[in-house]
Amino acid sequence: MCVEVTDWRGVYWWVVLLWIVGVAAAGDPPWPCPQRCECLHEILMVNCSSRHLTSVPEGVHGNTKRLSLANNRLKMLGRRQFSGLGQLRELDLSDNMLTMIEVEAFLGLQNLLTLRLTRNRLKIIPVGAFSGLSSLRLLDVSENELLVFLDFTFREMASLQKLEASENDLVFISNRAFNGLLNLQELNLDRCNLTSVPSEALSQLTGLSRLRFCRVGFTTLPNNSFRRLNRLRELTISHSPGLDSVAANSLIGLNLTSLTLSYCNLSAVPYAPLHHLVYLRYLDLSYNPITSIQSNLLGDLLRLQEFHLVGGSLLRVEPGAFRGLVHFRLLNVSSNRLLTLEETIFHSVGTLEVLRLDGNPLACDCRMLWVLRRRLRLDFDGQPPSCASPVQVQGRKFQDFTEAELPGLFTCRQARILNRKPQEVRTDEGHTVLFFCQVDGDPIPSVIWVSPQRTLISTTGRIRVLPNGTLEVRYAQVQDSGYYRCFASNAAGNDSISVSLRVRGFPASSSRNRSAHFFLEGWSLASTQMPVNGSQGPQPFPFDVKTLVIAVTMGFLSFLSSVAICFVFMFFWSQSKGQIKHTATIDFVPRSAGAASTGGGTSMETGRFTMKLI
Ligand SMILES: *[C@@H]1O[C@H](CO)[C@@H](O)[C@H](O)[C@H]1NC(C)=O
Ligand SMILES: *[C@@H]1O[C@H](CO)[C@@H](O)[C@H](O)[C@H]1NC(C)=O
Ligand SMILES: *[C@@H]1O[C@H](CO)[C@@H](O)[C@H](O)[C@H]1NC(C)=O
Ligand SMILES: *[C@@H]1O[C@H](CO)[C@@H](O)[C@H](O)[C@H]1NC(C)=O
Ligand SMILES: *[C@@H]1O[C@H](CO)[C@@H](O)[C@H](O)[C@H]1NC(C)=O
Ligand SMILES: *[C@@H]1O[C@H](CO)[C@@H](O)[C@H](O)[C@H]1NC(C)=O
Ligand SMILES: *[C@@H]1O[C@H](CO)[C@@H](O)[C@H](O)[C@H]1NC(C)=O
Ligand SMILES: *[C@@H]1O[C@H](CO)[C@@H](O)[C@H](O)[C@H]1NC(C)=O
Ligand SMILES: *[C@@H]1O[C@H](CO)[C@@H](O)[C@H](O)[C@H]1NC(C)=O
Ligand SMILES: CC(=O)N[C@H]1CO[C@H](CO)[C@@H](O)[C@@H]1O
After folding, report:
1. Last residue of a domain, one of 484, 504, 524
2. Residues 171-182 pLDDT 10s
3. Which residues form the signal peptide (predicted)?
4. Among the three residues 162, 182, 216, which one is the final residue of a domain in this structure?
5. Domain total in the chain
6. What is the DSSP track for 502-514?
7. 242 Cβ below 6 A of ligand 2
8. Which residue's CA is the closest to the ligand 1 atom numbered 6?
9. CA Rg value for the chain
């Protein structure tokens, strides 16, 4: 028995001894590790993630630098929840069920650099919740249910550099919410329910250099949207499908190097708002229904290097579109509706390095020859363009053409006017005359008509160019007479013909000649000097001039005669009455007193006044 007892004692001491030795060997210094957590002493980390915790565990060592409580069931953080962890650099509270953070919850974490609160259920952050976090550099509150940022929420966070607030239900950011964030460089507000730019709140972020808004409900960018953000370099606004207008002064005060306005509803390049961004290097207007890039309007963007307009509705890039841009090196216009891209759009095609032109119905004629010639030097980003027409090269990629087969391909046929038979028309006033100008060429030539006064004739008005190139002169007038000229031109050349029109006036209409002439002067001015493709131009008169003149004259005559008859009638009437009463007396009961009857003691006196008739 005795032997047995001593044996048990011996075993006990052995166990104690082994335990002490074991702990001493395992780590230095030996930390007490909170229950259910894993302590990585070498990196001073306490890992309590995914442990079904419902509260912050006790006993985390004061030297801990990183504490993870991610993926637990924490519902709220109380006051001074982490006191005693003054050495903590990184705190991860993401993927919990936090709905509430009390004021001063993080007090004492004066060395904390990173705080992650992503994927919780926060609806509101009380003012003062973040107090004491004077060293914090990164705060992530994305994927919560935050509705508003209140004034002074981030007041004591002067070191904060990056604020991630994407995927919340933010509908409002109070004007002084960002007060105190003097060093914030990056703000991310993707996927929130803002309907307008929180300009006033943003104006406190004088150190901001990157700002992102994605999937927001903006419909317009008003003037001065980003005032005082003069350090901002990168601005992204995307997936805002209602955004269709950018006011001329909306970006004033900014000095951007990169601007993205993609997946919006812009129907034109916002030339005026961009105008002052002389340091801009990167411009992305992809996925907007923009149909053309006009000539000479981007020349102020002196340092522009990259232009992206992918997936738009581009039909045309006008010659000179990128004129003045001497550093231009990348054009990305894939997936548009471009038939061609002429070399003359660039300032100098020599600087171009990358070209994405795939996904366009390209016509492989002489206008695209410059791309073909550079096909081995240009970087197509793995997606070389291919021909949609003409038939013999349809579907072929630019890189597949060999030198040997080039002659005879990528050619144009000069514009030519087919029917050159002289067209000389003599007609009487009021008739409609057509002049033909049938053209041929590859690419299909454009046709313009010029009047005897050398103005361009538009597609609307009394004298107009029909869609098939025919000139139509309706209700011909004497002063329409003269020589008209048709010009046909394409990339390979031009051609022209001249036609003549003689209109004889009516000899009998001399008395109305002056006024008709006056009307017509005004009219022809309007119809010939209009911009050719302007839709806002004056609409053509629905009437013939002559009809109008007659109608006006007759209307005036009948008005005069009615007035005269009236006067005559009144004269006889006044003569027939023997004695005329010159005054009329009218009695009345004041309406307010009778109707309201509030019992206020208003006298129910009947009124009376006398009118003198003249
Ligand atoms: C913390 O623990 C979780 C779960 O045990 C593990 O997935 C994760 O990798 C750990 N983190 C670190 C930094 O060790
Ligand atoms: C925010 O927008 C989303 C998606 O449009 C919507 O489901 C949600 O109800 C909105 N939240 C608020 C608070 O308006
Ligand atoms: C923006 O400012 C410009 C220039 O001052 C002005 O012409 C324009 O009307 C303003 N736009 C709006 C929407 O206020
Ligand atoms: C985009 O603008 C067009 C007119 O310019 C309008 O018809 C359309 O509804 C707008 N789309 C959206 C999503 O607002
Ligand atoms: C604008 O930004 C550029 C490039 O970041 C910088 O060199 C330039 O000094 C800035 N200009 C002003 C007026 O801030
Ligand atoms: C061109 O745009 C497409 C679509 O946005 C993008 O995937 C591609 O990387 C861009 N190419 C270059 C060279 O920037
Ligand atoms: C052009 O169109 C007009 C009206 O549609 C027609 O009268 C004319 O014959 C056409 N011209 C030619 C050359 O086809
Ligand atoms: C037509 O071509 C000639 C040279 O071939 C050129 O001098 C002239 O300016 C062109 N005219 C038009 C209207 O394009
Ligand atoms: C109509 O007026 C024009 C000039 O005003 C004149 O040359 C012409 O002879 C006049 N026609 C008739 C028919 O009086
Ligand atoms: C003369 C001229 O420029 N006409 C243009 C009017 O617009 C159409 C397309 O909208 C062009 O095809 C014409 O060339």
Report:
1. 504
2. 999 999 999 999
3. 1-26
4. 216
5. 2
6. EEEPPGGGHHHHH
7. no
8. 49
9. 41
